[in-house]
Automatic annotation (TrEMBL):
Cellular compartments annotated: Membrane
The protein's name: Membrane-associated proteins in eicosanoid and glutathione metabolism
PANTHER family from the UniProt entry: GLUTATHIONE S-TRANSFERASE 3, MITOCHONDRIAL, MICROSOMAL GLUTATHIONE S-TRANSFERASE
Primary residence: membrane
Record GO cellular component, one term: nuclear envelope
Keywords recorded for this protein, A-Z: Membrane, Transmembrane, Transmembrane helix
Phylogenetic lineage: Eukaryota, Fungi, Dikarya, Basidiomycota, Agaricomycotina
Organism: Gloeophyllum trabeum (strain ATCC 11539 / FP-39264 / Madison 617)
Top-level lineage group: Eukaryota
Gene Ontology MF term list: glutathione peroxidase activity; glutathione transferase activity
Topology versus the membrane: Multi-pass membrane protein
Length: 151
């Protein structure tokens, strides 16, 4: 039976890569609460434009729903970047995804105010910086592995 040897410190990577699960649960709860307050019935994904313009609760629902959706859209970048980077730089990877998770909380809290501009700073800006760092670190890690194979 083959075995896999993980680098020292990879436990931190696993623990931090799991942290977005709790953010997604929290966001799902916020979406459900906002949906209920706005009276938006399933399976409607968002309040229609007329609904959102007529009722603040419907507009806030759209903002909360969009924050959750955006997190789901960016999650693969964060998780793949973390797991790949963690193979070579576990502490860096764990720190970056932990920061990404915190940034998603700030992003959601800002967006949930109903003012879409509130999502940008600090949550949206921090998310963008961390995702770029994870992409760079992941690319560097892949490059190191490929280079080692070529030697």
């Amino acid at each position: 039976m083959a075995s896999i040897v993980l680098p020292k410190g990879f436990t931190y990577v696993i623990a931090s890569a799991f942290s977005p699960v709790w953010v997604l649960i929290w966001q799902s709860t916020k979406v459900a609460q906002a949906r209920s307050a706005a009276g938006i019935k399933y399976p409607q994904l968002h309040a229609e434009k007329a609904e959102a313009e007529a009722a603040r609760n419907a507009h806030v629902f759209n903002c909360v729903q969009r924050a959750h959706q955006n997190t789901l859209e960016s999650l693969p970048i964060a998780v793949i970047g973390t797991l790949v980077t963690g193979l070579r730089f576990p502490i860096l990877a764990a720190s970056l995804v932990g920061t990404w998770t915190l940034a998603r909380v700030l992003y959601t809290r800002g967006y949930a105010t109903g003012d879409p501009d509130e999502r940008t700073y600090p949550g949206g800006a921090l998310t963008a910086v961390v995702q770029f760092a994870l992409a760079l670190a992941g690319t560097w890690t892949v490059g190191e592995f490929v280079w080692a194979e070529l030697q």
